[in-house]
Amino acid sequence: MRMEGEERETAAGGGQIKRALIDATAGAIAGGISRAVTSPLDVIKIRFQVQLEPTSLWALVRSNVTAPSKYTGMLQATKDIFREEGLPGFWRGNVPALLMVMPYTAIQFTVLHKLKTFAAGSSKTEDHIHLSPYLSYASGALAGCAATVGSYPFDLLRTLLASQGEPKVFPTMRSAFADIVRTRGFRGLYAGLSPTLVEIVPYAGLQFGTYDTFKRWTMAWNHHISSTTSSINTDDNLSSVQLFICGLAAGTCAKLVCHPLDVVKKRFQIEGLQRHPKYGARVEHRAYRNMYDALRRISQMEGWAGLYKGIIPSTVKAAPAGAVTFVAYEFTSDWLESILT
């Protein structure tokens, strides 16, 4: 009997390790695909967020600002970046972005599955869909915090490289890393972490919580359609199109709510960065005392629209990014399970 108990414990331990490996691998692949596909929109978003001048012609006229704005709309920004930096300019900072997003999504999905397993009392993914929305939101928020802390320095390097434009301040990721450590110390690698964690709790909670909610609604709709058409198919599996739409809606909802904190994070990350004068005024070193001060100063100096700079490319990017991430994760996870089981 004792031998059988030990064998069951060993099998359970091996199953947990295998599940964690599947979640981490599927999460990393999903994050990498999503980041590579949406990088051009991310670069435009970052350029808008770190620009102190208005980012639209309407806001520029309304504010009576004499200094010209480098970027005044998505189409104009796209043309400018392509003309000055070529096609590679849209993937500026993509290497640290991939180095960030792959461990980020790997940690996020692994922690998320662990938390849901604990809450549901089962490691089976199909049992997790029946968790209450509150547990889904809480699990997503905690998973997001863990992933953020684990991958944050790469996020900082990505922002610096994507925002610098031409001529380059940092030719490589290594030079950017060395400059941060030299000028700000190792703590500088976590500049802007506070607003990031404040942002990621509602963002990750909303993203994963609404994703599970949309999946439940879609399953209920499928069952309703099956019952009205006298179909015997009661399979809970959703189609790739339905998963894509659920991920699309989840990413959009989360981004619309949390965008102002993302703007604050970017300002902290690039403070003191020397850029060519054509990009406008720079964010001076220690321009903001803390997150609240940054929110107050941005709204005072740039209006409430300043807190939503980059919202259009951010929303356009967040929707497909969320959809691609969730669909890629679901398919990769199912594929890995079929191989390893």
What do you see in this structure?
The chain is an all-alpha fold. It contains eleven helices and no strands. The protein has helices at 2-49, 57-63, 74-85, 94-120, 125-128, 133-163, 173-184, 193-228, 240-270, 291-302, 311-340. Helix 8 packs antiparallel against helix 9 (240-270). The longest helix has 48 residues, at 2-49. The chain is globular, with a radius of gyration of 22 Å. It starts with a helix and ends with a helix. The relative contact order is 0.14. The model has no long low-confidence stretch (mean pLDDT 80).
Q: What is this structure's SSE topology?
A:
Blueprint: H1 2-49, H2 57-63, H3 74-85, H4 94-120, H5 125-128, H6 133-163, H7 173-184, H8 193-228, H9 240-270, H10 291-302, H11 311-340
N- and C-termini, Cα separation: 26 Å
Number of strands: 0
Element pattern in H and E: HHHHHHHHHHH
Biggest pleated sheet = none
- Mean pLDDT metric: 80
State the low-pLDDT regions, or none.
Answer: none
Structural class: mainly alpha
Number of distinct helices:
11
Instruction: Estimate the global geometry from the Cα principal axes.
Output: globular
β-strand percent reads under 5%
Cα Rg: 22 Å
Percentage of helical residues? over 70%
Keywords: Membrane, Mitochondrion, Repeat, Transmembrane, Transmembrane helix, Transport
Subcellular location: Mitochondrion membrane
Pfam families: Mito_carr
Function: Mitochondrial transporter that mediates uptake of thiamine diphosphate (ThDP) into mitochondria.
